[in-house]
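Work Package 3 (structural annotation) set out to generate three-dimensional models for the target panel prioritized at the project kickoff. During this period the team completed the workflow that converts sequence records into discrete structure tokens, so that structures can be stored uniformly alongside our sequence database. As a representative example, we reproduce one entry of 366 residues exactly as it appears in the project archive.
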Amino acid sequence: MTKNIIMFDRKRLKNPNGFIFGVPGSGKSFLAKLEMLFSILATTDEILILDPEREYTSLAELLGGEVIYISENSSTHINPLDLTENPDKEDNEYDPIKAKLDFMLSFFSCILGNQEISPIQKTIIDNVMHSTYKKYEKPTLKEYYQELEEYEKTAADETKAAVAYLRQTLHLYVHGSMNVFSNPSNVNINKRIVVYDIKELGKNLQTLGMMIVLENLWDRVAKNRSRGLGTRIYIDEMYLLFKSEQSANFFYELYKRARKWGGIPTGITQNVEDLLRSELARAMLSNTQFVVMLSQNATDRDQLARLLNISPETMMYVTNANAGSGLIFADEYGTIPFENKFPSNTNLYRIISTKFGENLKKKKEE
């Protein structure tokens, strides 16, 4: 309201995890990129970005970062069965193989069309997972599939059909046209800012790709913790992870794990209504301490006001707000209206803006 600069360090919060919400064109990715830029300049944190729409490539190139392209035709591979070692050697409760079960349940739920995993399927998935890691030092989905075949041969009659169903579904992702994640990892990242570009995976594989990338990058988070470094993780189009209860649970567990491991995840989405259909997402929002709201439609605005206990008068700052303007909800620090009129005649603006007309102008000038 005073038009003075607002400076806020999310690390001052007990839980710095956060969300950025706004309708299309409200400035979500622009604001996220500015936070990334300031974090690079003002901290030693590393930045990992999950990018389903190729929004962050230019910023990564500007900052000397690395872009990893993941698609059916890419030579880059991420193995979803890679284990993340415990970054806290004194934490004897963490078992990397047991921790992998949450991911495997989410993985199968996703490839089964977001179906709920039955108790008998959970048992099969868990048993095959343990036998796979017992037999192979660094297994891939190919080895998991082989173990599933062996399990089917000796399974009791009442479980044989369930094993066969899981194996037949997995076949497409191991020996079929969607086998992009069935090879050993060959990603070697040394840059401080890394973008995982999954735009070319296509809609059928994007949710699965998001889960696999998130599972994989926790190895980087763990290694950074042992080096005394923080890791900021940005997940664009986050609502895709709440399409099923299983993938929502997977994301929720990662969000909880982040603070202990020195990670600061930020979910970004325009599909707030889709997100809030999930009870788990609503619970996460009710307990979060950092939310940036840009312009909101009426339904999303009312739901966010109730969840975060913000008055209707304050929510007027996100009603038909100009691009870049909105509210910062920061728990005990209050709810702060802001206006971010970034000068458009700068090189930085040209690089990080994603407005359609401005992108065309940028390409012509180049």
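The chain has a mean pLDDT of 89.
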